[in-house]
Design a protein that fits this description.
The chain is α+β, with helices and mostly antiparallel strands. The chain folds into two domains: 57-177, Roll (Nuclear Transport Factor 2, Chain: A); 190-301, Nuclear Transport Factor 2, Chain: A, CATH 3.10.450. It has helices spanning 7-11, 15-50, 57-75, 83-90, 194-213, 216-222, and strands at residues 78-79, 108-109, 111-121, 128-137, 145-153, 160-162, 167-169, 190-191, 244-251, 258-267, 273-285, 288-295. The strands form three sheets. Strands 3, 4, 5, 6 and 7 form a five-stranded antiparallel sheet that branches. Strands 8-9-10-11-12 form a five-stranded antiparallel sheet. Strands 1-2 form a two-stranded antiparallel ribbon. A hairpin with a 6-residue loop joins β5 (145-153) and β6 (160-162). α5 packs antiparallel against α6. The radius of gyration is 33 Å and the shape is globular. The termini are far apart.
């Protein structure tokens, strides 16, 4: 037979050739279908990458925890021979803070490490967190301090600001139950009359003294049954009744709530003094005002700084 120029006809019914020819057409078909599909998929993934996904709540909470404990580390690190080092570190958190912010300039201590046993979102606040930190010192003879600081998470992930100064509290392993505040940051109620404010003020000073001493017997007599007489952490104590100052007692118009704000100067064995702000709730029982809750709150509005 004369050659026709068609490889298939010229080769005759060769099975191997026919298989190669079929595989070639099949491969061409796969490429034709796959390339457009891959292009569409790649474009869609590119668009997704351009849209930054918002951070999860867990990431924001962890960031607030790290930020709050970082502030606590700086807050409880001081050296009377080099006080400016503390001020420089504090200005990272608030430019208006100096080395003597919340400290009397005495003593020397450094923080070895911190832990964050509790970080909780503030009820009714989208971006505010209460961070409780454990502060452990390089000198093992200094008792660990637990404190709480309120932190604001910025609109952009990774931006945080302090809404309060760190305030020493009890070890969170010894919880102090109570009702949640609805208006923690702003006082809306009226100042109480002297027949209420005078005995409440006396109870506050007695409570702070017993809290610092860790006197559970006295604490038990000053609190309601649902509270635990947990001692203050860190070996801090009230050196004088006057170190519980700027006490303001408030009472709701319907008398449903009585509470007080107080600034406390806690002393340590090293001679250092650290300041903290608290709010205490009271209930009246058998003619006596008993503490039903104590909390650290952002009373100092100058503590807030917005970081852009």
């Amino acid at each position: 037979l004369e050659p026709t120029g068609d490889p298939y006809l010229d080769a005759g019914p060769d099975p191997a050739f026919k298989q190669r020819r079929l595989r070639g057409w099949a491969l061409a078909g796969v490429i034709t279908l796959t390339v457009p599909t891959l292009w569409v998929f790649a474009m869609s993934q590119g668009f997704k990458m351009n849209r930054q996904a918002p951070p999860t709540e867990d990431l924001v909470r962890q960031g607030a925890s790290d930020y709050g404990c970082g502030l606590s580390r700086v807050w409880f690190t001081w050296d009377s021979d080099n006080p400016d080092a503390r001020g420089t570190a504090l200005k990272v958190y608030n430019p208006s803070w100096d080395s003597r912010r919340g400290w009397n300039g005495q003593g020397k201590q450094s923080v070895a490490y911190t832990t964050s046993p509790i970080t909780k979102k503030v009820e009714g606040k989208d971006r505010e967190y209460d961070v409780t930190c454990g502060i452990f010192f390089s000198d093992p003879s200094i008792a660990p301090v637990f404190d709480t600081v309120r932190v604001l998470a910025g609109e952009n992930y990774g931006e945080y600001s302090p809404l309060s100064m760190p305030a020493p509290v009890s070890n969170p392993a010894l919880p102090v139950p109570g009702q949640a505040y609805k208006d923690e940051a702003v006082v809306h109620d009226l100042q109480a009359q002297p027949n209420v404010s005078t005995p409440v003020t006396a109870q506050i000073r007695s409570y702070m003294d017993a809290w610092g001493k860790g006197d559970r017997t006295v604490l038990q007599a000053l609190i309601t049954g649902d509270m635990t007489p947990a001692p203050l952490s860190g070996g801090l104590y009230l050196a004088s009744p006057s170190d519980a100052s700027e006490i303001k007692v408030y009472q709701a118009k319907d008398l449903s709530r009585t509470y007080a704000d107080v600034k406390v100067r806690w002393s340590s064995k090293s001679g250092a003094v650290v300041e903290a702000n608290y709010r205490l709730d009271f209930v009246q029982k058998d003619g006596r005002w008993l503490v039903s809750r104590i909390d650290s709150i952002p009373l100092d509005q100058k503590a807030y700084v917005s970081q852009n």
